[in-house]
Design a protein that fits this description.
Layout: H1 2-5, H2 11-19, H3 23-60, E1 69-70, E2 73-76, E3 83-90, E4 94-101, E5 105-108, E6 121-133, E7 139-147, E8 150-159, H4 179-191, H5 196-226
Antiparallel strand pairs: 1-2, 2-3, 3-4, 4-6, 5-6, 6-7, 7-8
InterPro entries: MAM33, MAM33_sf
Pfam families: MAM33 (PF02330)
């Protein structure tokens, strides 16, 4: 009698019983938990490294607060960008605007037997100098290289104030100009404060800005990783 009561389960009953099994749910919960743990561990490691790097940079050689003026030039630091802008008035009707990149290239240094040369490379900064004389007049533009302790004029343009070169002919390469004319153009910039000393300042300023921007970048990344 008891044996007759214990019958094999039918197809529908088997399906219902399998649906009630907790194993797939437990497996999914475990997998999600492990994935979450891995993600938190991964992000936690990134946060740890960012905090360490920020602390290291601030303790080893903390950046200075950017100055807002140099030799009558007003400096626009442009936080978060890879360039700065400087402006000054010169005499009665002249305005000088300078746009300067952060370090954008380098060249190897031939030390020879000079042990006093510490750096293996010379860092390069591109500098564009615009000289304005009154409203509506053409602009004299110099494209220069600012080396660690010297200035090099690469090109001289005449263009309109809208930023577009007016004439198709933009002049010969600077080094093909007469030597006396080259010297006169260097003197022209020198009189307006664009000289070797200015380049020394720019390299010092950009080294500080490079460190500031690096720390700002890490701070932003840290804030992002800390969000839940």
């Amino acid at each position: 009698m008891a044996r007759r009561l214990v019958r094999p389960l039918g197809g529908i009953a088997k399906s219902l019983l399998l649906q009630q099994q907790p194993y797939p749910v437990i497996f999914n919960l475990s997998r999600n938990y492990i994935s979450e743990m891995r993600r938190e561990a991964f992000e936690g490691n990134i946060l740890r490294l960012l905090r360490y790097e920020i602390r290291y940079e601030l303790e080893r050689s903390p950046p200075s607060q950017p100055i807002g003026e140099f030799d009558s030039f007003i400096i626009d630091e442009r936080p978060g960008e890879q360039w700065i802008k400087l402006n000054k008035k010169f005499e009665e009707n002249e305005e000088i605007k300078v746009e300067v990149t952060m370090f954008d290239a380098s060249v190897p240094v031939n030390k020879g037997n000079d042990a006093s040369v510490a750096d293996d490379v010379q860092l390069h900064i591109t500098m564009i100098v615009n000289v304005f004389k009154g409203e509506g007049n053409d602009v004299l533009e110099f494209v220069c290289s600012a080396w660690p302790n010297s200035i090099e004029i690469r090109k001289v343009y005449m263009r309109g104030q809208n930023g577009v070169v007016d004439q198709p002919y933009v002049g010969p390469p600077f080094k093909e100009l007469d030597d006396e004319l080259q010297d006169s153009l260097y003197d022209f910039l020198e009189t307006r404060g664009i000289n070797d000393e200015f380049c020394v300042f720019l390299h010092r300023y950009m080294k500080n800005k490079d460190k500031l921007e690096f720390i700002r970048w890490m701070e932003k990344a840290k804030s992002f990783m800390e969000r839940k």
